[in-house]
Amino acid sequence: MTKASRKVLEDCKGALEDFKYGVQGGEWRRRWITSVVLLRTVGNVLKIVDALTDPVLEKIINAEWEKLKGSKPEPRIFWEFIYQERNNILKEYQISANMYFPFLECPLKLSGFFSINLCGVLLYPNIACRYSIEWWDKYLANIETQYAANKRRNCDFELKNGSGFCLQGLISGARLATVDFLVA
Predict the structure, then answer these.
(1) Is the pLDDT of residue 41 over 90?
(2) Do β-strands 174-175 and 170-171 pair in parallel, antiparallel, or remain unpaired?
(3) pTM of full prediction above 0.85
(4) CA gap 70, 66 in Å, rounded
(5) How many angstroms separate the Cα of 156 from the Cα of each of 84, 112, 129, 159?
(6) Domain definitions of the chain by residue range
(7) Could you give the CA distance from residue 177 to residue 171 in angstroms, rounded to a whole number?
(8) What is the DSSP string of 11-64?
(9) Distance between CA atoms of 135 and 155, rounded to whole angstroms?
């Protein structure tokens, strides 16, 4: 049901693992860009790929997207980070994460770390990515729950309307079978 977007989310987790202490410069920037673009890709793949697998799923995904748009600026993790940072990168090739130097040692020895301002709080960029992954996981789980509930309601409807016995299984979001028996 959300198989393709879940695959992208797994890649987000892998990209997060690539953030290692001491990575700086161009290598850090490339890892950051990869992580941010993957985070936004979860939603694009959900709407463009997963939604096309089932009309019921498409309605749920579209309704959740409209609800998300209507709640702007909340949740801030989506609008101020996932959405905005991806736009900064793809449209202007700018990143919001900056090197912060709490200690300056002489001669010319710098001690610093990257940070991103999210909702007025300075965070390590990998923490912002971790929060985003958790947010996407909950968002997808909500869609999956609604989809499963809809499928159960449809099965109950078939039973109540005398179409017989409904056997419907869901494994990894795939519909196994619906079997109707004639009632004499």
Answers:
(1) yes
(2) antiparallel
(3) no
(4) 6
(5) 43, 60, 41, 5
(6) 3-158
(7) 11
(8) HHHHHHHT--TT--HHHHHHHHHHHHHHHHHHHHHHHHTGGGG-HHHHHHHHHH
(9) 31
